[in-house]
Amino acid sequence: MRRRTEKILGDVDAPVQTPDSQRTQFDAVVRKCVLDAGWAPFHFVRGIDDLAEPWRAHILWQDQAQALGKVLKHQHGDATKVPPLLCGCGAVVLVTWLPECDPLALQNGDCASIQKSAARDEEHLAATGAMVQNLLLLLTAAGMGTYWSSGGNLGKPVVFDLLGIPASERLIAAVFVDYADTQGEVTKKPGAHRDKRGSDWIREVSLQGD
Ligand SMILES: Cc1cc2nc3c(=O)[nH]c(=O)nc-3n(C[C@H](O)[C@H](O)[C@H](O)COP(=O)(O)O)c2cc1C
């Protein structure tokens, strides 16, 4: 399995630069991977904006990712790794999903309605996870480095407002995509739990009592 987390942290004030000709090619690959990732299965039609899928993909290309990184760091005082990640990537894909759980039903304690929408939400979220994993595998197969981050401040209302993402969506993944051959200083880090993997979680089951 070649897929692995590759975190690329750039310098917010001297972000990476991918030469234009390469950037155009890489952007086209990312666009295709996002489109193909959308072949993930989904159980329920979500039906928002006449779209069946329970997920949305918001792509920020390199210049927009870097602009957002600068705004977050210098105007919003974001001292987390998010601005450096935005300034080290070739593109970032913000994958959101659309929960059905109605805050009004929660307030009114409408249990039947809550249970039904919570069950559907589990499956919307599972489908969106499958879409994200598709994206990681497709990008990996195309030779690009990836990092699935839960997104930190990128999931906050202030960022959704800046990017015009509806408040009804919830961020499940900020997929940072590394473009090879970028110019500029970066720090690279692996996934924290990579070496903790094993196979003892696999169970071969049979009928009990036989
Ligand atoms: C839903 C989800 C959210 C994640 N969010 C983060 C995150 O916010 N920060 C982080 O360092 N890694 C995050 N990761 C990546 C994991 O840390 C990483 O997959 C793990 O360390 C194993 O490394 P590997 O992907 O190279 O096998 C996330 C992974 C998933 C599936």
UniProtKB/TrEMBL annotation:
Taxonomic superkingdom: Bacteria
Ligase in keyword set: yes
The enzyme's E.C. designation: 6.3.2.34
Signal peptide: none
Keywords on record: Ligase
InterPro entries, alphabetized: NAD(P)H_nitroreductase, Nitroreductase, Nitroreductase-like
Domain Nitroreductase: 31-176
Keyword Iron-sulfur part of the UniProt annotation: no
One GO MF term: coenzyme F420-1:gamma-L-glutamate ligase activity
Designated name of the protein: Coenzyme F420:L-glutamate ligase
